[in-house]
Amino acid sequence: MSTFTPALSWDLSTAYDLFVSLFVLHHPDRFGLRPSWAAGVRSRLPPGQREFLEKAQSFLPVPLRWLYLLPAGARDAADAVSALAKIPTAERLATLSHTSEHTPEFTATLRSLSSRQSWTPAELEVIRTFYQRRGIPLKPTALLNLCQAWAHPAEFGDQYLEALQSYYRLFFTEEEQRIRPLLISGIERARELALHRSIEHLLDALSHGVHFSGLHSYREVILAPSVWSTPLVFYSPIDPARLFILFGCRPTDQPLTPSASAPEPLVLRLKALADPSRLAILRRLAESPTTPGELARHLRLRSPTVVHHLQLLRLAGLVEITLLPSGERRYALRREALQETLPALEAYLQVPISHPPSPEDPH
């Protein structure tokens, strides 16, 4: 029986990085970003808006589906901000949060919160379980922030728009000009790769080791580049027939923070390897691919601890991940990345250091 291959299409917009950058700045540890630098960017916002965004970004996803469905030719960052302003205030939270993966029970629970402006322990459990099954468990404070937002959606919609407008004005307008050429060159490189690779091998290369096991159930796969998501990917079904994937396109020699000196991939790999628990995880993955739950049982670690270590190993490119249709994630060792680490370190150590000229002898 022949296997259906989905059609491949492309998208390019700075609006994706507007929202991804907000996500990264509020979760810097997930992306290998210095927390102090991220806090410095966030400090450009007025204190009230900064505190609001810290709560909002503890549970808000990147609204990939909404951004992709904006009118063609009007999906850059400024267009997205304007489009959000046109949405009725009380509907902005639902717009930003919606994905095709929402279950009827989850959607009904959120609507109940909004109508009663309160929640029950049973409803908290429905929300917690939904995120747990998707592999993105919420911390207790994030769960509370989410419930408070849905209990007062109009108030949230007003505050979020004001904070987003400030963020765009005070930081992202300048950042947009910096990243636009990188997005263009990134999509050009990806298109070139697509000429010579199957869609599976293309996604593996662009995502640094993410495998979508249900890929052939989609009619179309849409790919778009992102500077801020590098080296990770964001993805979301647009509908049952279309899958959207935002891939990192930032070159390895161009760090996100201007003060970085050593090669970013090398630093991430060395940090990831400098931990006994992560070495134990890699040793287990060297035997066979497995899930976070299985790793937790074998290594006698708490599941959240294992997930944290796997995130750092994934960020360093040392493990690959298969996303199963059930939502389960299976990890495996990326041997090629491990084998590249020592040569990369040796190459870095051999780069000549530019010394400043010696001051002239005053005599």
Automatic annotation (TrEMBL):
Pfam families found in the cross-reference section: HTH_20 (PF12840)
CDD domains membership: HTH_ARSR (cd00090)
SUPFAM superfamilies registered for this protein in UniProt: Winged helix' DNA-binding domain
Coiled coil regions, renumbered to chain: none
UniProt cross-references to PROSITE patterns, sorted A to Z: HTH_ARSR_2 (PS50987)
Annotated ranges, domain HTH arsR-type: 258-352
Keywords: DNA-binding, Transcription, Transcription regulation
GO molecular function, one term: DNA-binding transcription factor activity
InterPro entries associated with the record: ArsR-like_HTH, HTH_ArsR_DNA-bd_dom, HTH_MetalResp_TranReg, WH-like_DNA-bd_sf, WH_DNA-bd_sf
Protein name listed in UniProt: ArsR family transcriptional regulator
Organism field: Anaerolinea thermolimosa
